[in-house]
Structures are given as structure tokens and as C-alpha cells.
Design brief:
164 residues, alpha+beta, globular
């Protein structure tokens, strides 16, 4: 089962939106969110990965010279897989992605991944394919717990919350 990547076509939009509605992504990955930007702002190159004709991954991004960036105008991007993809399949998908982008003339790939608690940690898969961490972004998150919040927070965190 070989996976193949290609630039998404407008005819695939409904399928991509359906894919994202099934818990695969966040609004930062939705085509409607990305439509916010005028077409001339980014050279959009949103990518789709298929295995046996089935959509298995989505990668929103743009090309700038010989560099591919994901996201394009969002807080984070990176590839999103369907939930049933196994680790070895995802590893093969990343190798296929690199091969596809090299064929397209891309020489550098920059991915700003979502916090790992959203979609899992992709670091293992990407590092195995030769990617390296160049920046680490701090991401604060809170689990809201009904009436216990914010009282359940540590005193210093409640202070930070009130200041924000």
C-alpha cells in the first residue's frame, strides 16, 4: 500500500471538509478558515495524501521560493492523518511527502505542529524521516473543570490568569 501526495484540487474540498469533521483536525486546518486570506497573500500548496484512493492525510501550507511552510496564515499546521493510520503507515507517508516535495523543487520544509495534546506527538515520526526541531513554542492550556475552575488552579496560575 503505497501512499501518494498531490496538490489538492477544488473538487476535493467537500471530501477534505468531511475528513476534518470526523475529529481529524481543528479549525486552523479547515479550507474555510484558510480562505480568509486573499489569494495573493500566499502561494497556497495544500496537499492531500491518498492510499488506495482513500484520503488519509491533509497538509495545509504554502510555498515560498524553494521552501514549503505549514501553516499558511494559521497558528499551527502540519499533517493530519485519519485516526486509523498506523505508525509504520505514517512513517511511509512522511517519506512519500518528502519525495513529492523534492520532485516539486522544494529544498526545505518547515512545519509548525499543533500542541501534542491535540493530535498526538509527531516528533518521533518526523525525526525518523530526518526532520529536526528548530524552534519550540510554549503553549499554555487549561482543562476547565466546572465550578472548580479557577479555584482549582495553583495560586501563581490564578494570578497569571487574572493578569491575562
Amino acid at each position: 500500500m503505497k501512499s501518494t501526495w498531490h496538490c489538492h484540487a477544488l473538487s476535493e474540498r467537500n471530501e477534505i471538509e468531511q475528513f476534518l469533521r470526523h475529529g481529524t483536525g481543528s479549525f486552523f486546518h479547515e479550507p474555510a478558515f484558510l480562505d480568509y486570506h486573499p489569494p495573493e497573500k500566499f502561494n497556497f500548496k495544500n496537499l492531500v495524501c491518498r492510499r488506495d484512493g482513500k484520503l488519509i492525510a491533509w497538509l495545509p501550507g504554502h510555498q515560498e521560493g524553494k521552501t514549503y511552510h505549514s501553516p499558511a496564515g494559521a497558528s499551527y499546521g502540519g499533517p493530519l492523518w485519519n485516526k486509523s493510520s498506523s505508525l509504520p503507515e505514517r512513517q511511509n507517508d512522511v517519506v512519500a511527502l518528502k519525495d513529492f516535495l523534492l520532485e516539486q523543487g522544494i529544498r526545505e520544509i518547515n512545519l509548525r505542529l499543533p500542541p501534542s495534546f491535540y493530535f498526538g506527538d509527531l516528533g518521533f515520526i518526523l525525526s525518523g524521516a530526518g526532520f529536526s526541531l528548530s524552534k519550540r513554542w510554549g503553549c499554555q492550556s487549561l482543562q476547565l473543570a466546572g465550578n472548580e475552575w479557577p479555584a482549582a488552579m495553583k495560586k501563581t496560575k490564578r494570578y497569571d490568569y487574572k493578569q491575562a
